[in-house]
Every structure is written in structure tokens, then in C-alpha cells.
Design goal:
Bound molecules: manganese (II) ion
Distance between the termini: 45 Å
CATH architecture of the largest domain: Sandwich
Oligomer: single chain
Number of helices: 2
Length: 282
């Protein structure tokens, strides 16, 4: 692991907002709409975690998307995806589902469990304006297919997207160059550093234990927005901990969102709603 000369500091610590989505699924919205410009190209991060089926059982019945990508990472549980482009898949413990909505899909994301823990994340990644109307794309990546490695400190690094220490992730994207790492620090703690390209927006979300970013502690269920000055990020844990490290190249385009549609302009949103209502979205 190459040492960093100038690790990025924390610009801001964010506490997620409890909310509900789909058919009343309780979740924590970590990356909210007011942070979309700051964390461009990322539009949303939800964390769902419950052992009560009343919180998740109704799932996310049929609904549309246009103009961006959704990345679902399931830590525990079983969720079935079906969409209007003919894709179907089951995402289970440790697996990822990557969907490019492009010009439009109508899909459902429904739990396939009556009890037990359901825990995971959904990240929304924007598409550049020139790709917003591309053909929909879908891939599910089962847990064993996600590349991972272990550092000398015993930190397990799951490389969902991008590249870390020469290990290529499961998914690569040309324009937004997303980096999506799931870091598992062992009982004895450890150190992890990752170079980040200058200008890429980046954040860390801690979901077990506590992790320090450039010496500042970040508690569980907090997101640390990283300052853009510096050559990478240096993380330290004193004990067992888990965190997501997410970074990407900003698109620097206008962001117009209306619910499940994310375009560049209001006119494009109106078109999306009309297309959906008239059955022409997907
Ligand atoms: Mn959806």
C-alpha cells in the first residue's frame, strides 16, 4: 500500500435521515438531495437495516426510473429484481445488483424472506447527459464474483467498482469512474489507504464500529464527506469495523430530479413523466 503524502481531511460529517420509500420500507437516507451537487456524480445513498419484517416486507413494487444507475448491495437478505427490459435476478448476502435505467425501466425490488435480517445499501449514480437515454442494462453480481483482497493489516477490501491496489472491481464506468469499496477491519483494527484522483468527490460511510479518517473519528451510521484537497484517503480502525468508501468523477452538469427520474432539465423531466403516463417510458 503506497503511503499518502497528503491524505484528505473531513469536510463535513453527515447523519442520515430516517425515511420510508417503496411500499413503506423503513430506511436511512444517508446521501440526501441537498448533497447531490457536492457529491456529484452520486445522487443518493440509502442504508436499510432491520430484523423486523414489518419494516421491509412490502418491498418496492413496480416503479419507473430514467436517467441514472442504481447499485444495490445486499449485506444480509434476499431481494428479487424484475424489470421491463426482461431482466430478472435475485440479490442475496454479499451480492450486488447494478442497473442502468437509461431511457427507462419499470422494475420491482421485492424481499424474498418472511423473517430475519435485511441489511444493505442502494446507491444512485448519475449518467452523463449524452447517456441518459441509452438502452437499459442490468447485471447481478453474486458475492463470490466480487473481487476482494486482504491487506497486510488484515483489512478485507471488497472491490465492487473501480480499482484498488491493482485489483479491478466487478464494474467499471468510463465517465463517472466510480470507486466503490466495502472495507472490513479485523478485531485488532488496522489501517487502510487508497489514492484518489484529484477532483473526484469522495465519502466514507461507517456501518459497523468506528473508523478514523485522517485522525478524526467517524461513528457508526455517519457519512464523512472528504475534502477534495489531498492525494487520497487514510483510514484507521482500533477494532472490528466496516465502512464503504465511495468516490467518483463529477459530471458538472445540471441535475434535475423528480422522484425516480434524474435528467438535466425540467423539460426532460416533464417528458419522462409524460412518457411514463402514456406507457412510452419502457
Ligand atoms: Mn428502483
Amino acid at each position: 500500500m503506497s503511503p499518502l503524502l497528503h491524505p484528505r481531511g473531513i469536510e463535513r460529517l453527515v447523519t442520515g435521515q430516517p425515511t420510508q420509500d417503496g411500499a413503506g420500507v423503513k430506511l436511512t437516507r444517508v446521501l440526501t438531495q441537498d448533497l447531490q451537487q457536492r457529491l456529484d456524480p452520486f445522487l443518493m445513498l440509502d442504508n436499510f437495516a432491520s430484523d423486523n419484517p414489518d419494516d421491509y416486507g412490502a418491498g418496492f413494487p413496480s416503479h419507473p426510473h430514467r436517467g441514472f444507475e442504481t447499485v444495490s448491495y445486499m449485506l444480509n437478505g434476499r431481494m428479487r429484481h424484475k424489470d421491463s427490459a426482461g431482466h430478472e435476478g435475485l440479490v442475496t448476502d454479499g451480492g450486488v445488483q447494478w442497473m442502468t435505467a437509461g431511457r427507462g425501466v419499470i422494475h420491482s425490488e421485492m424481499p424474498e424472506q418472511q423473517d430475519g435480517v435485511m441489511e444493505g445499501f442502494q446507491l444512485w449514480l448519475n449518467l452523463p447527459g449524452k447517456d441518459k437515454m441509452c438502452a437499459p442494462w442490468y447485471r447481478d453480481i453474486q458475492s463470490p464474483e466480487i473481487p476482494e483482497y486482504t491487506t497486510d493489516d488484515g483489512v478485507t477490501v471488497r472491490v465492487i467498482a473501480g480499482e484498488s491496489a491493482g485489483v479491478a472491481g466487478a464494474v467499471q464506468r468510463a465517465h463517472t469512474e466510480p470507486l466503490y469499496l466495502d472495507l472490513h477491519f479485523p478485531e485488532g483494527g488496522g489501517h487502510f489507504s487508497q489514492p484518489l484522483p484529484a477532483g473526484h468527490n469522495a465519502f466514507v460511510y461507517v456501518y459497523r464500529g468506528e473508523v478514523s479518517v485522517a485522525g478524526t473519528p467517524v461513528a457508526r451510521q455517519r457519512m464523512a464527506i472528504l475534502a477534495n484537497e489531498g492525494d487520497g484517503v487514510a483510514l484507521q480502525a482500533g477494532g472490528a469495523a466496516r465502512a464503504l468508501l465511495i468516490a467518483g468523477r463529477p459530471l458538472r452538469e445540471p441535475i434535475a430530479q423528480y422522484g425516480p427520474f434524474v435528467m438535466n432539465t425540467r423539460d426532460e423531466l416533464i417528458q419522462a413523466v409524460e412518457d411514463f403516463q402514456s406507457g412510452r417510458l419502457a
